[in-house]
Each structure stands twice: as C-alpha cells, then as structure tokens.
Specification:
Its EC number is 6.1.1.20. It is found in: Cytoplasm. By secondary structure, the protein is an alpha+beta fold. It has eleven helices and ten strands. A hairpin with a 2-residue loop joins strand 7 and strand 8. It is rod-shaped. It binds phenylalanine.
C-alpha cells in the first residue's frame, strides 16, 4: 500500500492530483483510517504492532505528500516568476511630450525681433467695445469701411475684435498724449469669413505702433525692412503699395519677395514673385487726436501683420486650416527638440 501510494505521489504533476491522492489514502474513507478504526477487533498483542505500522505508513505517505507539495509549489512559483521577468536592459517606452504650436514659435520670433528694436509687448481684450474696435480708429457708426471687416457682435456695443488695432487706441489712451509709444501687440482676432485655404474666422495678428515727435514713413519702411531681412533672410526685399485704411493716412500694404517658389505654378505668390504680409501706414491725425495726442506735435506709424501668412510663407504651409485642426502629423513637424 505504501509503495503504491508513494509511486503515485512521485508521478503526480499538479497540486490537484496530490490532493486527491491525499484524500484517497489518508482520508476518512481511506484504507489506513479503516485499519485504525478496526483496531478494537484486534487482540491486545496485535494492537500495538499494527497500530505502529499503520501510523508509520500514514506518516511516510504524509511526509512524501508534503515534500512533493512543496516541490510543486516551488515549481509553479518559478514558472510564474520566469513569465513575469522584467528585462531592465530593455529601452523604456517613450512618453509622449507636447511642444509649442508653430504659431506660438512664429509669434515669439516676431516679438523677439521687435523687442530688439526697442518695442514693448502689450496685450488687449479679445472681446472689445465698438468704440475701440471702430470709432476710436476713425470708423464711426455706419461708416462703409466697417464692411471691410465682417464682425461677430456679442451685443450692440461689444464684439469679438476684428483686428488688433484697438490696442493702438488703448495704449495711446493710457499714455495720455505726453509720451512716445513703441509697442507691438500679438493676439487673436475674429471675422465672419467662410473658412477656406486662405481664410479663417479666427486668426492671429501682430499690431505695431510707434508714436513720437517726427516719426516718418521712412521710419516705417526701415523698421519693416529690418524685420523682413532678419526674419526671412538678407536676400529678401520688401515693397510698399498704396492702400486704404480709415485709421492711417497714407496707407500701405507691404509685400515681401517670394522665395518659396517661382513662376505660374507657385500657389503662395501666384506667380507674381511677391506676397502681401501686412497693412500699415501713418497714424491718421484724427486717431491721434481722439487718443489725446496733438497731431501737430506728434506723428506715428502703425502696422498689422498676419503670423499665419508669415508661417505659410516661411515653411511652405499650403492651407491656413492646418494651424487649427490639430493634426499632430502636421504640428509635430515644427516641435523643436
Ligand atoms: N488693422 C488692419 C487690418 O486688420 C491692418 C492695419 C493695422 C492697417 C495698422 C494699418 C495700420 O487689416
């Protein structure tokens, strides 16, 4: 019996098998229990002999069972540990890291260049009053030029600013007409345009304003030329074309020579070799006056440029919507390490 049981223990490969061997040999209905139960029927001489034998067999089987159980348990543990092994020499999984948006880079680059020329950086509200967005810029109510910029009105007197030019009026108002102003103002602006490859209902502008005694058109040209060469490269040229804005007189639009591509197939400069990147001019005397400056004593220039256009020109981006649809395949190209 003992040999049979031990052989089975030896062969057992799972803890379940061991348990059933334990039950069948050592359990309440097993053969050894039966022997011990039948002790009463034995003679007093037989009892100690048989008892000792039965206990010994039980002990031997029990010991073997315990030993095998420990073996199997250890085996199971080893197997589990092996399966869960961590190879510390494997390279780690990369953590996805974001980065500043291309437009953020562009605006910061523009800021740096103008800070280098002595301009301070200011901000203004995106929800603007009709007064600052239009009236203080020589665009009275019912002025037809208001149609140049279709607006999102919040109430009759409040709207999403259509340009950053209201910050001109706000800044001059703060300086109370007795100080020179040299500032730029980057920010978001809104127009009721239908979105397409070159239009967006929300886009970015950087306003510039320089007011002092004896500021001239040549100062505007010099500053913009300096900006264009530093930003796009020494070989770039600028050209000023006459234009119209109610808040500047005279008004200009500035083109920059297009080096992205040439000829008729060029979508960026449409084969002309030039692309417009900003509007500007000499601050209108009425605008100076409304802000508390004496136009006989002070003069100034102002401009407003579009960083999206500038980014499209610099990096050959062919659709303004790429800036806002947050396609990481586009955005990641411009993440700096
Ligand atoms: N505010 C004008 C626009 O959005 C640009 C501009 C700014 C023109 C400053 C002249 C002076 O089109």
């Amino acid at each position: 019996l003992q040999q049979e049981a031990l052989a089975k223990v030896k062969e057992a490969t799972t803890l379940d098998e061991l348990q059933s061997i334990r039950v069948s040999y050592l359990g309440k209905k097993g053969p050894i229990t039966e022997v011990l139960r039948g002790m009463g029927k034995l003679s007093p001489e037989e009892r100690p002999v048989i008892g000792e034998l039965a206990n010994k067999v039980r002990e031997t089987i029990a010991n073997q069972l315990d030993e095998k159980k420990q073996q199997l348990e250890k085996l199971a543990l080893d197997k589990k540990l092996e399966a869960e092994t961590i190879d510390v020499t494997l390279p780690g999984r990369p953590v996805a890291v974001g980065g500043p948006h291309l437009l953020t880079h562009i605006v910061e680059e523009i800021e740096d260049l103008f800070i280098g020329m002595g301009f301070e950086v200011r901000e203004g509200p995106e929800v603007e009053t009709d007064y600052y967005n239009f009236e203080a810029l020589n665009l009275p109510k019912d002025h037809p030029a208001r149609d140049m910029q279709d607006s999102f009105y919040v109430t009759e007197e409040l709207l999403l600013r259509t340009h950053t030019s209201p910050v001109q009026a706000r800044t001059m108002g703060e300086y109370k007409g007795n100080k020179s102003v040299k500032m730029i103002c980057p920010g978001k602006v809104y127009r009721r345009d239908t979105d397409d490859a070159t239009h967006s209902h929300q886009f970015t502008q950087v306003e510039g304003l320089y007011v002092d005694k004896d500021v001239r058109m040549s100062d505007l040209k010099g500053v913009l030329n300096q900006f264009a060469k530093q930003f796009f490269g020494e070989e770039r040229e600028i050209r000023l074309r006459p234009s119209f804005f109610p808040f500047t007189e005279p008004s200009v639009e500035m083109d920059i020579s297009c080096k992205v591509c040439h000829g008729e197939g060029c979508s960026v400069c449409k084969g002309t070799g030039w692309i417009e990147i900003l509007g500007g001019g000499m601050v209108h005397p009425r605008v100076l006056e409304m802000a508390g400056y004496d136009p006989k004593e002070y003069s100034g220039f102002a401009f407003g440029m579009g960083p999206e256009r500038i980014a499209m020109l610099k990096y050959g981006v062919d659709d303004i919507r790429h800036f806002y649809t947050n396609d990481l395949r586009f955005l990641k190209q411009y993440h700096k390490a």
